[in-house]
Design a protein that fits this description.
Elements (H helix, E strand, L loop, with lengths): L1 H19 L4 H12 L2 H4 L1 E7 L2 E6 L2 H21 L16 H20 L7 H5 L4 H19 L3 H17 L3 H14 L7 H31 L23 H11 L3 H8 L2 H14 L7 H8 L5 H4 L10 H9 L11 H34 L2 H15 L7 H37 L2
Antiparallel strand pairs: 1-2
Helix pairs in contact: 1-4, 2-4, 2-18, 4-17, 5-7, 5-8, 5-19, 7-8, 7-9, 7-18, 7-19, 9-10, 9-18, 13-17, 17-18, 18-19
Keywords: Membrane, Transmembrane, Transmembrane helix
């Protein structure tokens, strides 16, 4: 019964958003919820047990309740934001410099990071992560901002250069920036899907092509990394070593392989091992095992987004503990790698359904504010808001508060700094121009 009700809610929401014909932050949040709550359509989550193996677990009724609460709140938010009379924001001309400044941040950050991290970028991801510095994160968070703001202002040379940097980032093992860029661009152009005809076909084709490339290119990049593994200071070791001799398949084995690929089994297995199924196993396990945490640490995580919080509130200088550090040793002790977080699992562990309600309410309030600003803005500001909103609307489902606050802080600080620098450059140029015109 709970699964049928969940189906009905999602279907009703899908019909509503299609009739609404808008691709704004709230629509992206709904699409993200459908993706990350996909286990609800199957009725189970995939629980990792180590060494690449996993077992399935039937979803609890409370898991469906949490997912339904999130989706219902997102749908309800549209009724609020669509009733607001929104006036267009006045965007200064100085903002035309913002994409160039953001691209400059990407170039400088990348150059500095290459000078410090160097050949470690050619290593396995777990080795590379231990060496990555703040310069990389500065460039990484500025990259989607530069790409999307360059797109909306039709500064396609910026978009082209940013695309090259995104490919470099995917090559070293990170595709989040490319995904955020794609979703941000879709948020700006997705309304053309509802117009039908040639424009809709172009937008859909572009989104599908980029999406497929995001899945295929990392596999190519992973192979290319092993072609240059001699440059890595640390020996790269495969989890599954390459065979000493080439693998030769006879005709019968090839036919069997292609016959297997022609069935639904390999594709269903790929789905069951995908990130949404792993993430919802966290929520489901928290509920099934009645895993609880203290709620006070949530305030420490939120405070990390406030400048000078350590001094102002007398907080400890070390970073607060993440939710992953709490649940993984207890619920998934055999896992050898860090699992993604679930904010809804974090909320349930800290205070049950009432805390989930607080999380959901806070989420949709922030979502609604970003939706209003997105609708009212234009040009560079709209592009920047699209990226900020994507980090919240789409990416929040796989983070805890600590990670999400850290990401939003970096993105917002970088954006504000770019606007301030752009305003200063504009003022200097105007003063210089007036000086030339003076008698």
């Amino acid at each position: 019964m709970t699964q049928i009700a969940f189906f009905a809610l999602c279907l009703a929401g899908l019909v509503w958003f299609w009739a609404r014909k808008k691709t704004d932050p709230v629509a992206v949040a709904f699409a993200s919820a459908l993706i990350y709550f996909a286990p609800g359509f199957f009725g189970w989550a995939s629980i990792p047990v180590g060494n690449g193996a996993s077992v399935t677990q039937q979803l609890a009724s409370e898991t469906y309740l949490v997912m339904a609460l999130v989706i219902a709140a997102i749908v309800a938010t549209t009724f609020a934001v669509d009733r607001i009379q929104i006036r267009a924001l006045s965007v200064p001309q100085s903002t035309t410099f913002v994409p160039t400044i953001l691209l400059g941040v990407v170039v400088v950050g990348t150059a500095m990071s290459l000078s410090t991290v160097g050949v470690y970028y050619l290593c396995e991801k777990n080795v590379m992560l231990a060496q990555i510095d703040g310069w990389y994160y500065l460039a990484s968070y500025a990259l989607p901002l530069a790409a999307v703001s360059g797109l909306i202002t039709r500064q396609y040379w910026i978009m082209g250069i940013a695309a090259l940097f995104l490919m470099m980032e995917v090559y070293i093992g990170f595709r989040t920036g490319a995904a955020i860029t794609l979703i941000g661009a879709a948020m700006l152009s997705g309304h053309r899907i509802f117009q039908g005809g040639r424009q809709a076909a172009i937008v859909i084709s572009a989104i599908l092509a980029c999406g497929v490339a995001l899945f295929l290119f990392p596999q190519v990049a992973y192979t290319l990394k092993y072609l240059v593994n001699d440059a890595c200071p640390i020996e790269m070791v495969r989890v599954v070593p390459l065979p000493a001799t080439p693998l030769n398949l006879d005709e019968g084995q090839v036919e069997t392989l292609f016959a297997h690929l022609g069935t639904a089994a390999p594709y269903l297995e790929a789905i069951l091992h995908s990130e949404p199924f792993i993430i919802q196993s966290v929520l489901n396990s928290v509920i099934d095992h009645d895993f609880t945490t203290d709620a006070s640490y949530l305030l420490l995580q939120i405070a990390t987004g406030i400048p000078g919080a350590v001094t102002i509130f007398g907080l400890p200088p070390e970073a607060p503990v993440s939710f992953n550090q709490m649940f993984q040793p207890v619920l998934f002790p055999d896992m050898t790698y860090g699992m993604a977080n679930s904010p809804w699992a974090q909320a349930y562990a800290a205070g049950g359904l009432p805390m989930v309600g607080i999380f959901v309410l806070s989420f949709v309030i922030l979502l609604g504010i970003l939706n209003v600003v997105f609708t009212a803005s234009a040009g560079t500001l709209k592009g920047v808001v699209a990226v900020v909103a994507t980090w919240l609307a789409f990416y929040f489902h796989r983070n805890d508060l600590l990670a999400e606050v850290g990401i939003l802080k970096q993105v917002i600080y970088t954006s504000i700094s770019a606007f301030i620098i752009a305003a200063a450059v504009w003022a200097i140029l105007r003063m210089a121009h007036r000086g030339k015109d003076a008698p």
